[in-house]
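User: I would dearly like some help making sense of a protein record. This is the protein in question:
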Amino acid sequence: MKNIGKLRIINEKTENKLMNKKYHIPVIGHFSNKSIEFKSIIEASAATGIHYSLIFEACIGKIFKAKNVIWEFKKGNHYIKYKAFYINAATSYKRSVGFNG
């Protein structure tokens, strides 16, 4: 079991997932009374206790808030890359009914 910051890593697959580039880019968390910039999503997760995948999904716009905190990427190439990927995936989705019907 390894530690990255304050996160405990349980197995090798989780460790490999956390080593992805998308979790090591700067983000800004907009709390109720102030905004804080973090060096990476992993660091933000360790500092706030919010799961790293929730922070990433809030950054790309899949969800609006993660635990009452609005998250965004610090502007840069990664911001354009991940936002564009999510927008293209959402517009190309043509299924009219859910997965169960």
Observations:
- The radius of gyration is 15 Å.
- The chain has four helices and five strands.
